[in-house]
Amino acid sequence: MHTAIGRVMAALAASLLLLTPPSARAQAEPPRRLRIVGGLAGVNQYTRHEEPFWTQALPRLTGGRVSAEIVPFDRAGIRGQEMLRLMQLGVVPFGTAILSLSAAQEPILGAVDLAGLNPDMPTLRRTVAAFRPYLERTLRERYGIESLAVYVYPAQVVFCNRPLASLADLKGRRIRISSAPQADLVEALGGVAVQTSFADMMANMKSNNIECAVTGTMSGNTIGLADMTTHIHSMAINWGLSVFGANAAAWNALPADVKALLRRELPRLEQAIWAESERETGEGIACNIGADGCISGRKTRMTEVRASPADERRRQEIFVSTVLARWVQRCGPTCADVWNQTIGPVSGFEAGR
After folding, report:
1. Number of other residues whose CB lies within 10 A of the CB of residue 102
2. Are 256 and 192 in the same domain?
3. Lowest CB count within 10 Å: 9, 46, 231, 342, which one?
4. Which domain range does residue 326 map to?
5. Buried b vs exposed e over 207-244: b needs ≥16 C-beta within 10 Å?
6. pLDDT in tens, 265-319
7. Can you name the residues that pair with 95 across neighbouring β-strands?
8. For 128, what's the count of Cα atoms within 13 Å in the CB-facing half-sphere?
9. What is the CATH number of the domain that holds 300?
10. How many domains are there within the chain?
């Protein structure tokens, strides 16, 4: 364990050092410099929002009293599954933890973004609002982490390389998934779930190891998946939520006025990231089908399959009978109680013990 932590600390320090130009390092250090581990590298949520906030907005807002270095977790030698533990230990003083990955350590954290729970952004917002007080309390009391913001990535949808008219047509197809709840949903639809990393998805599609893939609307366009597939079902399978938080000791060491500033400004950053994700979800669909709303992506000629009333009924049936039920099996009866006190009332889905 100590060796692993040392490895992570060394990798993180090296990555952060690279972000600071030699001329800046030669100058006198500012009064306070924060070390931030951000979300996924290369996506708009990081490049357009997280990174500029810490490297540009924060020094401006504090008159130069506070500055920050930030590195994406996947370029800092850190596995997403390790983030909560590293933040708890203070190895990462300020970090962004993807909840679906953190669920490997704390299964209850995956509740808010289970596959099939949030088919659209308004539903997702209601779910997060209902679960957030429990999330913040759990991180504070169990991990010593102060939750400061909740971020979201664009919708994860299904791309397929041959026609489909509804979710029922996924039966028998080999479908790329990235989590256990996604596998539960696919298997309940009669499909074959194939666990595949994002980096290996295109190779698996080219080799015909998979016929469909669950991935982001715009990321699928960016990597060329839209050139290898013909139909896109635009119901959101899930989204990809993350929480930005601070180790309690690191947070408490900040001056009161800096903490107050972050409490004021980070919700604004959160709102900007949510707006970006909602916009990018729609633009990803537009680019994949060649519609006028495509601005930053590449137009292709996929066919959009929208959720029918039958699809919506099937989603709800599978969610209750399979996805939610299997999650409770993995998470335990206490998780069912938490669900029924938080998400259950706003979703209409009750968890059995």
Report:
1. 25
2. no
3. 9
4. 156-238+290-347
5. eeebbbbbbbbbbbbbbebbebbebbbbbbbbbbbbbb
6. 999 999 999 999 999 999 999 999 999 999 989 999 999 999 999 999 999 999 9
7. 37, 245
8. 21
9. 3.40.190.170
10. 2
